Amino acid sequence: MAFVLFGSTVAGVTTEIINTGSELLLGRVLNTHQQWICRTLADRGRTVERQVAVTDEPTALVAAVREGLSRADWVIVTGGLGPTCDDRTRDLVAGLLGRRLVHRPEVEVQIRAYFEGRGRPVPARTRVESMVPEGAEVLVNRHGTAPGLALWLEPNPLREGGRASWLVMLPGPPRELRPMFLGEVMPRLEARFPLAEPFACRTLKTTGLGESYMEERLEGPLRGLVEAGMDLGFCARVGEVDVRFVARGPDAAAVVAEAERRTREAAGEHVFGVEDETLELALVEACKVRGLRLALAESCTGGHVANRVTNVPGASAVLHSGWVTYANEAKERELGVPAALLGEHGAVSEPVARAMAEGARRMAGADIAIGITGIAGPSGAVEGKPVGTVFIAVAHAGGTSVARHLNAFDRETFKYVTAQQAMAMALRVVLGVGLVDAGTRS
Amino acid sequence: MAFVLFGSTVAGVTTEIINTGSELLLGRVLNTHQQWICRTLADRGRTVERQVAVTDEPTALVAAVREGLSRADWVIVTGGLGPTCDDRTRDLVAGLLGRRLVHRPEVEVQIRAYFEGRGRPVPARTRVESMVPEGAEVLVNRHGTAPGLALWLEPNPLREGGRASWLVMLPGPPRELRPMFLGEVMPRLEARFPLAEPFACRTLKTTGLGESYMEERLEGPLRGLVEAGMDLGFCARVGEVDVRFVARGPDAAAVVAEAERRTREAAGEHVFGVEDETLELALVEACKVRGLRLALAESCTGGHVANRVTNVPGASAVLHSGWVTYANEAKERELGVPAALLGEHGAVSEPVARAMAEGARRMAGADIAIGITGIAGPSGAVEGKPVGTVFIAVAHAGGTSVARHLNAFDRETFKYVTAQQAMAMALRVVLGVGLVDAGTRS
Predict the structure, then answer these.
(1) Which of residues 76-135 of B touch A (CB under 8 A)?
(2) Residue B4 domain-assigned (yes or no)
(3) Sign (positive/negative) of CA torsion B375, B381, B382, B388?
(4) Residue of B173, B302, B377 lying closest to A310 (CB–CB)
(5) Confidence (pLDDT) at B125
(6) Would you call B304 and A305 a contact, using CB atoms and an 8 Å cutoff?
């Protein structure tokens, strides 16, 4: 997965993230904070220079914070604020900066309210969470007990010339950290370190055209904007390519809007969403706005498409029925696929995919139905149909189309890629047969 | 998610990981290398002290490598070995160490073979991948073109007293890095830095008992082993608790085996697997070994269970049919749930869950069937049934059991947790009704 940026990048507030926790360095948990914080900041015109993960062993943790504070304008520390004996960030940072821990009654009140709201007694050990390094600002935790802490160090004793730094400590659980970061940290950041100039960015989500073809297609239309200083980036994902525009300066918003307009003009049929939108969201929304009902008949994807479609809140308005017809007899019994068809062509074939989609559409009384049959592997290959072979059918009022792909990946990737292809195919049909113009989708 | 280790940890070869790539610090991709490498090493008795991510901007990358080499016995750098202009690791490391890049014909031969094997011409720009810092050992890449590189620095010019360090550079794509790490790096590591004493570890996967209850249950049986130096760790995941034993010394393997035996004796009904095994794998294997056929009727989980069950290779021997009956009429039509039942009790109710499971079992001719109906949210709450309410039924020859849970999470977590509960419940039924003793599963 490559992310290529053309154009300039602008230096700003130097920022470092320190993730603490022995479980990170034992590989027991995945560090999702890095991506989430970096992404959140990048979308607001900020960059992160370095991220470090260390155990909660005192020497390692203190060394990492000391180094961060010796270099950066802003240091974010995650984890180690809870009530257990391996939550050491509060104490160690206070020690490093030579500050006492002081009791903050308002934190104790919040913690009590948190437990009382849940009808549970307040554990004695949470009292330590209201002990705060002297001078720290408390960041309210609405989804847990440990408050975040912010310290404005001016002078910063650990930095050359005493240059100021902002130290922000956040609780480790993502469901506590994320709302705190957005609600408590970002407003303080904007006040503390305002951007030097306006910033705008936009990501368009596309499907059905490879990264280099997309680059080629957009080169002409966007050249002028890139030459005038706009950043243009491509990020190839499985079955998708993100196209991202970043601009700074007084015209930033207008530049990005113009880039989006030109891209939709040049490759609009491939754009299915913006920012973090998924294909499943695009498909559900496109069906919903047209009052179309969707049905799914999955063999080799085994419910993967249904699972993703039903991840979209409100999917029940669109998807009433799905089938996982793994066995031949299920294809016959549930979807009315003729036994003769299965016998003659095999379960993995164009006619069976077609019959599955048409059967699902008929049984469910749906407007659009997807039928998928293929060989997910690792075994199951037959003459002329290697592992990864898949047939995807989309049935609708205007007829049924079937596509054949060779998705030669491991089993889970096979399912993911096949689902991407199936949803993209169904989306094109929905946009084509619908009454609302594709241009109004975003 | 807490990982608590009781007992001692043993210091070894100091190890640091440096992940390079601007896409990491823009938050465009998730850094999975850290977890994977740390986990792989931890399972082999090794620890990682620090992980750093930096952009591929030269100053940042060089500073990170210099610092790593000034501190650690072993420095692992990932990314930046490809053929594009932002792949700078090779050049920058050669520059930092004052080494020339030399052409290695054997790498060029490998690259040519890689492309010829795929019937594609060799891109001219891949030639740069055969330019290697003088003295570097080449690590074969069987899944891509960029070789890994290993440099034994003795003396290490960047470390106090010239103490030796081992610098290993690996390509960024996980499907290239992982096999290279296991096949090329690990044998060299064992030779270069053998463990001081034998090491053994074992993780038991459990479900149905919370972390603190599990801790309580195992405290007595395992106390002797922990006092004699074994590490005991618990890692609470959603619907699962990992129990992990780590031992060192001549008896390491025997100690860990004894800990496993005692744990199975004390809490065996909750142990569903070992190491990375999943509940879906345990369920499929348990059904397969007993010749039992499984059917799934999902409403609120929308195919999530089917998707996970079909992630298991060979699931087709066990799962023939699944239904996603999101709408009431689908529950009636597909599973024969009586309209009166839906009218009287509502779709989210004990009788409907029961009727779904029994209907699926009957329609599919299955031995065991799961029926799930609930309110995934964010909307849909009704009087007495808040968002997160779910009924899970398991139907089998001996009858049907139904459980009610309140899984008050976001939509996707709701589906995951509910699936965990449903699979754990079905697994207990399978183990109970089966002919093979549960103790033979692992």
Answers:
(1) 84, 86
(2) no
(3) positive
(4) B302
(5) 81
(6) no
Yes or no: say if A392 and A421 are a contact pair by the CB < 8 Å rule.
Answer: yes
Q: Cβ B302–A309 below 8 Å, yes or no? A: yes
Tell me the per-residue pLDDT of A259-306, one tens digit each, with 9 for 90 and over.
Answer: 999 999 999 989 999 998 999 999 999 999 999 999 999 999 999 999
Residue B1 within any structural domain of the chain: no
Is A316 in CB contact (< 8 Å) with chain B?
A: yes
In angstroms, the CA B157 to CA B60 distance is 19
Same domain assignment for residues B24 and B169: yes
- Mean pLDDT for B159-173 is 96
Residues B264 and B162 in one domain: no
Nearest by CB to B327, from A55, A320, A324: name it: A320
Domain count, chain A: 3
Has residue A323 got a pLDDT over 90?
yes
Q: With 70 as the cut, is the pLDDT of residue A435 above it?
A: no
Instruction: State mean pLDDT over B117-131.
Output: 85
Does residue A211 form part of some domain? yes
Interatomic CA distance for residues B377 and A241, integer angstroms: 30
The CATH number of whichever domain residue B217 belongs to comes to: 3.30.70.2860
Using an 8 Å CB-CB cutoff, list chain B residues near A7: none
Residues B69, B174, single domain; the answer is: yes
Judge: A49–B60 Cβ closer than 8 Å, yes or no.
Answer: yes
- Each residue of B168-222: pLDDT tens digit? 999 998 989 999 999 999 999 999 999 989 999 999 999 888 888 898 999 999 9
- Kindly report the nearest CA distance between residue B51 and chain A, in angstroms: 5
The answer for residues whose C-beta is within 8 angstroms of residue B413's C-beta and 6 or more apart is B238, B407
CA distance B93 to B75: 12
User: What is the span of the domain harbouring residue B236?
Assistant: 199-274
Task: Answer with the one of B274, B293, B323 that is the final residue of a domain.
Answer: B274
Contact call for B27 and A40, based on CB within 8 A? yes
Shared domain for B119 and B181, answered yes or no, is yes
Q: Determine phi and psi for A149, rounding to 5 degrees.
A: -135, 140
Same domain (yes/no): A270, A302 = no
Contact A302 B325 (CB under 8 A): no
Q: In this structure, are A237 and A165 located in the same domain?
A: no
**What tokens does B182 get?**
């296991």
Residue A140: what residue type?
V
Q: Which of residues 159-198 of B touch A (CB under 8 A)?
A: 173
A293 and A424 belong to one structural domain: yes
| Amino acid at position B52, single letter | V
